[in-house]
Amino acid sequence: MTSGEQASHRAFLDRYYRLTHHVYDVSRRYFLFGRDGVLDRLLASDWTTLVELGPGTGRNLARLHRRRPDAALGGLEASEVMRAHAARRCPWARIQPGFAEDGDIGAVLGVPPQRILMSYCLSMFTDPDRAIGNARRHLAPGGELWVVDFADLAGLPSGPRRAMRRFLAAFHVEAVPDELLDRHGASHVGHGPLRYFVVARFTA
Ligand SMILES: C[S@@+](CC[C@H](N)C(=O)[O-])C[C@H]1O[C@@H](n2cnc3c(N)ncnc32)[C@H](O)[C@@H]1O
């Protein structure tokens, strides 16, 4: 990803989120499924440091903070509009500007995080392979990367499936194929109802 491609991706994100960030959480409740299940699974193990890539409005970080107030939480966010919004909402978190594909994730909290979260952002990244590789490289020893995102929607009838895919493509979103997760050696891959979403875990 060249710096020109990064600049144009950021410009797209900022244009899009400048218009939508006020209503983002309310509207996304109806189609970003599986996020709370992944937060529950994250909170089922012991860790004290977590970085979310593409934290958006900070919705997931806020929920994690409520349930684990002593943990050090951070984010790496490509859109300046979203970064500023999340920083206002989550003053206790360190939310840095940067791209998942090549950002210095270890610098966000000053230590390699024990957990990294990608929630509905892998499907938006311009280079998902690089982003997974970059995240795994930055994990603390024994750490875990968790992904939740759109899957192939194979359980939907073909008409609604095609319509949903067109809708997602209009926002530069592409369903995450299992093949991508398998190629990177995910230690767990599971799907939500109708294969609407996928949850994957990677180890360091
Ligand atoms: C659909 S939103 C999801 C927000 C949040 N993770 C959630 O679950 O509500 C995707 C987020 O990823 C960010 N993003 C997109 N591409 C990115 C990249 N290459 N690096 C870092 N963040 C990126 C977007 O700006 C946006 O905030």
Mean pLDDT: 93
Q: Any idea what the CATH architecture is? A: 3-Layer(aba) Sandwich
C-alpha Rg (nearest Å): 16 Å
Total helices: the number is: 9
How would you write the strand order of the largest sheet? Answer: 3-2-1-4-5-7-6
Organism: Paractinoplanes rhizophilus
Protein name: Class I SAM-dependent methyltransferase
InterPro entries: SAM-dependent_MTases_sf
Keywords: Methyltransferase, Transferase
Describe the protein in words:
The protein is α/β, with parallel strands linked by helices and 204 residues long. The protein has a single domain, classed as 3-Layer(aba) Sandwich (Rossmann fold). 42% of the residues lie in helices and 19% in strands. The chain has a seven-stranded mixed β-sheet, with helices on both faces. Helix 3 packs parallel to helix 4 (59-67). The chain is globular. The protein binds S-adenosylmethionine. S-adenosylmethionine (SAM) binds next to helix 4 and strand 2. The site of S-adenosylmethionine has 23 residues, from helix 4 and strand 2. Keywords: Methyltransferase, Transferase.
